[in-house]
Specification:
With about 250 residues, the protein is of the alpha+beta class. The chain folds into 2 domains: about 140 residues, Fructose-1,6-Bisphosphatase, subunit A, domain 1 (Fructose-1,6-Bisphosphatase, Chain A, domain 1), CATH 3.30.540.10; about 100 residues, D-Maltodextrin-Binding Protein, domain 2, CATH 3.40.190. About 30% of the residues lie in helices and about 30% in strands. It is built from 6 helices and 14 strands. Strands 3-4-5-6-7-8-9 form a 7-stranded mixed sheet, sandwiched between helices. Strands 11-10-12-14-13 form a 5-stranded mixed sheet, with helices on both faces. Strands 1-2 form a two-stranded antiparallel sheet. The longest helix has 20 residues. The radius of gyration is 17 Å and the shape is globular. The protein starts with a helix and ends in a 5-residue tail after the last strand.
């Protein structure tokens, strides 16, 4: 299958999952706790992940599949692998804050190859194929050219890791003093795409899992931005890490 057609098929599957989010019966939304502070999974997380696994593996039957709602994860080191977050921003979804996304990355031999992030509430579909640029609903996007002093900083609080809370807010305050303002959306995937689209200049979070950033970080880089760990190292897809993402403009 040609890359463009494969990406289009992935978009269609993700859009179908977005419709499930939009039409969720909130009165029937069973919620279970997972390890970590304020870490939840809903029946819809599980339903969407199952749909993604079934439909995506029909596109690439030999691919591995790594989803957030799994106890064990397949290796992504060889051939194709899908890394998915069925609902990035589950707490937002539970509270009906309407800032959640379906995130799907496709890797090839352990490297990010394609990314799709869909916000069904705004009908926004962010996509990228490595080396071919980034797009929002089919139109090219690019990071902002503004320095941090004229910019907005997005951040996550790593809420499942309470020991990181104080440092997270100390960093947020530091950036608040250097930028125009700060924002906290509750979806790392959408924050990365916001930087990619030039809506903000920087995003950071002290701990994320690969499914939180695999797709969004590729979209950001294809839009001209950079994504590294807080220490400046490369992001890893085999385990979680911190993320510092920006437009690459000197502050």
């Amino acid at each position: 299958m040609e890359p463009d057609q494969l990406l289009k098929n992935m978009e269609n599957i993700v859009r179908e999952c977005g419709k499930i989010i939009l039409h969720a019966d909130r009165s029937q939304n069973q919620t279970d706790a997972k390890p970590g502070h304020a870490n939840f999974v809903t029946a819809y997380d599980k339903k969407i992940q199952q749909l993604l696994q079934t439909r995506l593996l029909q596109l690439l039957p030999g691919a591995s599949f790594v989803g957030e709602e799994e106890d064990t994860h397949a290796s992504i080191d060889t051939d194709y692998a899908f890394i998915v977050d069925p609902i990035d921003g589950t707490t937002n979804f539970i509270k009906d804050c309407r800032m959640s996304a379906v995130s799907v990355a496709l890797t090839l031999d352990g490297e990010r190859y394609m990314g799709v992030v869909h916000n069904p509430y705004l009908d926004e579909m962010f996509t990228a194929i490595k080396g071919q640029g980034a797009f929002l609903n089919g139109a090219p996007i690019h990071v902002s050219s503004q320095p941090l002093k004229n910019g907005i900083v997005l951040f996550g609080t790593a809420p499942y890791n309470e020991e990181l809370a104080k440092k997270s807010f100390e960093m947020a305050y530091g950036y608040f003093k250097r930028a125009m303002d700060i924002r906290r959306s509750g979806s790392a995937a959408l924050d990365l795409c916001s930087v990619a689209a030039g809506r903000a200049e920087l995003f950071f979070e002290l701990y994320l899992s690969p499914w939180d950033y695999a797709a969004g970080s590729l979209i950001l880089e294809e839009a001209g931005g950079t994504a590294v760990t807080i220490e400046g190292g490369p992001l890893t897809l085999r385990e979680g890490c911190s993320v510092l993402a920006g437009n690459g403009v000197e502050s």
